[in-house]
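hey team, just a heads up i'm posting the complex here instead of the shared drive bc the drive is being weird again. everything in one block, sequence lines first with there labels, then the predicted structure for the whole assembly after. its two chains so it's a bit long, scroll down
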Amino acid sequence: AQSVTQPDIHITVSEGASLELRCNYSYGATPYLFWYVQSPGQGLQLLLKYFSGDTLVQGIKGFEAEFKRSQSSFNLRKPSVHWSDAAEYFCAVGRNDDYKLSFGAGTTVTVRA
Amino acid sequence: ETGVTQSPTHLIKTRGQQVTLRCSSQSGHNTVSWYQQALGQGPQFIFQYYREEENGRGNFPPRFSGLQFPNYSSELNVNALELDDSALYLCASSFGQGSDTQYFGPGTRLTVL
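-- predicted structure starts here --
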């Protein structure tokens, strides 16, 4: 069964600084990989996804992620964070012959002025 | 194009009662998945419906059941509510079977007293 680990529970970053959120997955074949963002009391919004092809994926709100098969990682990055990026971020893994997404426990991002 | 909608937004029940949560899928989508998100955790897969049939189920007891209707909207029913059922219940819609890109609704916050 696939699993996802997000090693950082909480990250604090200054506005305008860069951000990197880590995600490691466990799965034997090439997975489908996703990053979602959740604002307080809200549902999940899709930031970006990787199915195949170019390992550097661009998403919404200036986010990007890089799939590294050798490290079983799919880290999310943003060059310059805005106060509105404060939220909880979830990495998820799926596969083309399965029906569910498996989520990590999430990383809470706090942005300080 | 309308997104995924869920009702009600909030719900308070007592232990032992039954509850029904509703979800309308995004236009053009024929698959609905339900997830439970306990406080401080990532979403956990409950089950998926594809063209009105249950397509897969996570590690949840039979008192969690569902339906999908011809218009692809869906219901989640939970019988004999327990305190641990208190959570945010998320509905996600997608096109086709498998874990293709899932788009989430805002969720229903269930509190069991």
